[in-house]
Amino acid sequence: MGGGGQSRREWLHGARDTAPLALSAFAYAIGFGVLARAAGLTVAETSLMSALVFAGASQFAALPLFSAAAVPLTIIATTAAINLRHLLMGASLTRVLRGVSRPLLAAVAFGLSDETYALVMGRAQRQPLSAAYVLGSFLALYVAWNAGTGLGASLGALLGPPERYGLDFAVTAVFIALLTFFLEGRPGWTVLGAAAAISIGGVLLLPGNSHLIAAGLGGSLVGAALERG
Amino acid sequence: MRVEVALVILGMAAVTYLTRAAVTLTLRDRPLPGTAERWFRHVPLAILAALAIPGLLFTAGAVDLPRLAPRLAGGLLTFWLARRTGNLFAAVAAGVLAYLGALRLLT
C-alpha cells in the first residue's frame, strides 16, 4: 500500500470526503435500529446484522420477513436479489483498482455500498484511485452505519425521523452531483436518459430494487452500443 | 442471541459478500475485452441515474407529489452547481437548503 505517510493521508482523505454520506447513513442506521427492535430482533441480533451484512436496503427489507417469521431461505434469497446490483458495481470498480492485491481487494469488496461506490468512482474520474482512499471511505461509512444501528437499537425512537433534517434528500443530491462528473458528450446524456427512463419504468413495474439492475444494465449497454457505432 | 436468527443473519452476510466479491475478485488485473471495457465504462453513470432519478420522483414506489417540486428545485440546483463548480459538498449543501426552503414554503 505505498509509503506510510502518503497512505495515511489517502485513508483520511477518503474518510473526510465520505463525511456527509456517513452522517446520513448514521441517521438511517438509527432508524434501522429502531425498526429492527420493533420487528422483534434483540440489540445483539440487530448489531450483528449491521456488522456482518452492512447493506442498508436489504437489511430494511429483511425486517418484515423476520417479524412474519418467514422461512430462512426466503430471507436469504431476498437479500441476494436486492444485492445483485453489487455484481455490476464490482465490475466497474475493479477497472479503476488495477494492481491492488487480492487480500486488499477482498476487504474493499466487503465495504462496497451504493453511496461510497458512487463517491470513489467520482474521484477515479478525476484522478488515479488508491486502495487506501477507498478503504478510508468504506470504513467511515461502516463505522457510521454500525454506530447508528447500536444507538437506534438501544435508545429507540428518541431522535425522530431523519426526514426532519432533509437527510432523505441529501442522499439523492449526492447522487445527482456525482453523476455530473460522468456526464460527458452525447453518449453521456444518452446513457443518462436511457437509465433514467428504465429506472422510472422499473420502479413502477418491477419488484423491489430491481430497477437498479435493469437501468444499470440497460443504460450502460446503450452507451456501449453508441460507442461502437 | 437466538441461534436460528444468528444463522439466518450469517446466511444473509454470506450471499451479500458473494455479490460484492464475485466479480471484483475474478476480474482483478485481467485485461477486459474491448466490448466489456466500453460497457463497464458506462455502468457508474447508469447506476447513478437509477439511484438519483427515482429518488427525485418517488417515495416507497409511489410518486411523492407533496415533495416533488421541492426535490426538483433542490435537484436542479445541485445539478447546475456541481456541473459549474465541480464542488460536490457545496452543490449538495445548497441543494438540501433549497429543498428544505421550498418544502417549508409549499407545505
Structure description:
The complex is a heterodimer of chains A (229) and B (107). Chain A has 229 residues and is mainly alpha-helical. Chain A folds into two domains: 4-182, no CATH class; 184-229. Chain A has helices at 4-17, 19-38, 43-52, 56-67, 72-83, 85-95, 102-110, 114-124, 131-155, 167-182, 185-205, 210-228. The model of chain A has no long low-confidence stretch (mean pLDDT 87). Chain B has one domain (31-106). The N and C termini of chain B lie far apart (45 Å). Classes of the chains: A mainly alpha (229), B mainly alpha (107). Chains A and B meet through helix 3, helix 4, helix 5, helix 6 and helix 7 of A and helix 1, helix 2, helix 3, helix 4 and helix 5 of B.
Summarize the structure.
Chain A is mainly α and 229 residues long. Chain A is built from twelve helices and no strands.
* SSE order of chain A: HHHHHHHHHHHH
Mean pLDDT of chain A: 87
N-to-C span of chain A: 40 Å
Based on helices, strands and strand pairing, what is the structural class of chain B?
mainly alpha
Rg estimate of chain B, integer Å: 20 Å
User: Which geometry of chain B do the CA atoms define?
Assistant: flat
Structural class of chain A: mainly alpha
Total DSSP E strands of chain A: 0
Helix and strand topology:
The complex is a heterodimer of chains A (229) and B (107).
Chain A: H1 4-17, H2 19-38, H3 43-52, H4 56-67, H5 72-83, H6 85-95, H7 102-110, H8 114-124, H9 131-155, H10 167-182, H11 185-205, H12 210-228
Chain B: H1 3-26, H2 34-41, H3 43-57, E1 58-59, E2 62-63, H4 65-85, H5 88-106
Antiparallel strand pairs in B: 1-2
